Amino acid sequence: MGSSQSTEATERASKSQPKGKVAIIGGGPGGAGVSRALVARGFDVDIFESQDGFGGVWKYTGRGPMYRDLDTNIVAKLMEYKDFPFKGSQGYRDREDVYEYVVEYSKKYTTNVHFNTTIANVLKDENSWRLIDIKGKEYEADFIVLAAGHYNVPFTPEIEGIEEWRKVHPGTVLHSRTFDNPDVFENKKVVVVGNGASGLDVAIQILSVTAPVSVCRRHEAPSDVLFDGENMVLKPELIKVDAQTQTVYYQDGSSDPADVILFCTGYLYEFPFLREFSDGQKYPLLHPRRQRLCNLYERTIYLTDPTLAVVGMDKQIVPMPVSEAQGAVIARVFAKDLTLPPLAEMVELERRAVEVRGDGQSYHNLGYPNDAEWMAKLDEWVDTAPTERGFTAEKWDSEKLDLRKHSSKTKLGEFRHKIDQSNRKRLQK
């Protein structure tokens, strides 16, 4: 990895006359990462951010997916952008540390940011894009990057009886997007649906105020070893609920009483401002069920219009370095340093990927080694560009690859420590 001085010199040297105007929708970690690469390649970049400042999902408001006591699932050394290390510990960091880090990076590598600007509509004219915000103001761009994240529309699976439960017991069917802290669950019977990273973390926090906490899941996972069957109880898939008796039923026929059902089941993808590229299209950007994105080459470039790209839409990845790897590709495709394969070939590649990964939420769940292999593939594609001008993402060395390989196992140890803390806190009350 080169020094920040040499990297910045390379980036400055690659700027000349603007190569066109790029509109990035979303000023969070992904938008900032791709902005760095675009500016370095000489593009005029505008970022449109609905919030009043940088930080994206890491900006804590008490009303969104970022909850009060969240900390990272990945150590800081892996999360860092290229040549921009975290200050202090290279281990797990809390949300405030990450927020401050993202803000500092964003201030350095972004230009022309429009805060408090929500884009309501995006239209493609013959040779350019037109963006219209919710106040009716219009903007023009030659290229569009979608970097608005995927934490806005909660996904809740259809469960028999759940709608009646909502009516009979209002406010007791929740999604992790509304979770802020465990205090409101004190002494309640809580069933958490979903055993991903957020489901586990939320369940462990709730354990500090009540026990037992039940977590139901569809598939086995390495985290199953964390459940002791007494305070943290692992349950099969939730299949039915009965509002009259406040009972939940599992796939194996067992049941539990419940006061609260908390879904930690992820999010849907939604771009309400980009309907013309989704509904009724031969090559839609969004799947009809909204559980995945479609027709993207290398999960990044829209197949039929390479002036449209997305960044940071996959899950179980390391977002900051991924955004820079995607950004390096996007900048070169927009600059025509790189070209796409024939449409039929790209369609076939995605068809094969769907066969392997599934046609729903699982399509975007990469994890190791898939995420590392994908980043390496993006880097290799960048290396084929006929010019060396522009930003290149960091290529993970053996140390970082080893950290990523063992990150899930390392996090299990962190979860065990949190469970012990929650049990002690509850017993001290």
Automatic annotation (TrEMBL):
InterPro entries: FAD/NAD-bd_sf, Flavin_mOase, Flavin_mOase-like, FMO-like. Belongs to the FMO family. Residues 1-27 are annotated as: Disordered. One of its GO terms (molecular function) is N,N-dimethylaniline monooxygenase activity. This is Thiol-specific monooxygenase. It comes from Wickerhamiella sorbophila. The keyword Flavoprotein applies. Keywords: FAD, Flavoprotein, Monooxygenase, NADP, Oxidoreductase. It holds the Pfam family FMO-like. PANTHER family: DIMETHYLANILINE MONOOXYGENASE. The keyword Cell membrane does not apply.
